[in-house]
Write a structure and sequence with these properties.
With 389 residues, the protein is α/β, with parallel strands linked by helices. 46% of the residues lie in helices and 15% in strands. The protein contains 17 helices and twelve strands. Strand 11 and strand 12 form a beta hairpin. The termini are far apart.
Length: 389
């Protein structure tokens, strides 16, 4: 049955955000909720199997070897954090799992510094258990590697760099392992790392990531929508002092982000990440923004990470080359290309309780309307407040 084998089997940005939350917002609380975008039907008994897998996560702990690796790899994170992480244990009581018919409900609640680690591994478990219980047969191991090799042969010709961003919606741990192995062994310099810290350690590659939408969603709950991006980035730079300098741009639309991404932040951060909306339009806006601040776009980088495949990547490269730096984070097209339909699920923060105040609904206003998350009334209010059509 699906289960996690390491506490580091998670996205890097979950740990980098956890460190920042421990430093800046140790009293804050958060709630998260599962969103079944793909309207997948869950077989009878699924919730019980997921509860078992989540309960088993309580036994995970950071080993001495993992701690040494993490410290050496990330010298910009205080040593005290790794002592904290070694003492951290998942608490299944923070997770509520229910099933009615073929519909699944997952909710998470607790201190933000604790609950922040649940999202990615629970999503990975949901995907793996779904394929297990439906007994859907994937392609064999050699074909998984062959698919990766064929894709990398094509990507190599584009002379680009690529990282794996596929933990949350992978087919399974086994497939993810095969994919990273194939990427690492491929005879080129195209593959530069993975968002998964466990596999980065196992295959001696770089952990990749900075922060996620929830960082800015919390800042909106605490400081208001108009200050969320600005203060979110200011606080990030206070913690990391120039390291981990890729800013996520689409929590409240790219237009709003660039209004708050002032000259200081534009110079300080190495670049931005694209995660929704038309990639070429985003590149045009980003280039125009840097030029308006007197910054050469070729000194900055866009990390593209929105549902990428070869055709999308090729189009982006053809537009961006010679105009701005670029790199790519590819998720399910690597870790869930096994001959089965891919799952479309998310697990998002829904409410935040800042250090002082009350439970406050949080939302995400993506550049793609069908990726908006949160209560409809709150979304309408935020759009009015931010003057978004």
């Amino acid at each position: 049955m699906a289960k996690l084998v390491s506490i580091l089997d998670n996205d890097f940005y979950k740990f980098t955000m956890q460190f920042a939350v421990v430093k800046l917002f140790p009293k804050a609380k958060a709630k998260y909720q599962f969103i079944n975008r793909g309207k997948h039907k869950f077989p009878e008994g699924f919730a019980d199997r997921l509860k078992t897998a989540v309960s088993e996560m309580a036994a995970l702990k950071l080993s001495d070897e993992e701690k040494s690796y993490f410290q050496e790899t990330c010298p910009y994170i205080d040593p005290a954090y790794f002592d904290f992480l070694q003492g951290y244990r998942y608490n299944p009581k923070e997770v509520s799992i229910e099933q009615q018919g073929d519909e699944l409900s997952v909710k998470i609640e607790g201190f933000w510094y604790r609950t922040i680690l649940w999202e990615v591994p629970i999503m990975a478990l949901i995907c793996e258990l779904h394929y297990e219980l439906l007994e859907e047969k994937r392609v064999d191991d050699s074909e998984v590697k062959n698919i990766v090799d064929q894709k990398m042969d094509k990507y190599d010709k584009l002379a680009i760099t690529i990282a794996d961003f596929g933990t949350r919606r992978r087919h399974s741990y086994k497939v993810h392992d095969l994919v990273i192995q194939a990427l690492k062994n491929h005879p080129s310099n195209t593959f530069i790392g993975t968002s998964n810290v466990h596999f980065a350690m196992k295959y001696e590659t770089k952990p990749i990531g900075t922060h996620a939408h929830e960082w800015f969603m919390f800042h909106a709950a605490k400081y208001g929508y108009k200050m969320a991006n600005l203060l979110g980035l200011e606080h990030w730079s206070d913690v990391y002092r120039g390291d981990l300098g890729i800013a996520l741009s689409d929590t409240y639309t790219t237009e709003v982000f660039f209004q708050q991404f002032d000259k200081k932040l534009s110079k300080l951060f190495d670049g931005v990440r694209h995660d929704s909306g038309d990639a070429i339009e985003f590149a045009q806006k980003t280039i125009a923004h840097y030029e308006s601040k007197g910054i050469n776009p070729l000194t900055k980088t866009i990390i593209f990470s929105d549902g990428l495949d070869y055709e999308k990547v090729e189009k982006i490269v053809n537009f961006c080359r010679g105009k701005i730096g670029f790199s790519f984070g590819i998720g399910t097209d690597f870790t869930n290309d096994v001959g089965l339909s891919r799952m479309n699920i998310v697990l998002k923060m829904t409410e935040a309780f800042p250090d002082e105040g009350q439970w406050t609904p949080v939302i995400k206003l993506s550049d793609e309307p069908n990726k908006h998350t949160g209560e409809e009334e709150e979304i309408r209010m935020a759009k009015r407040f931010l003057m978004i059509d």
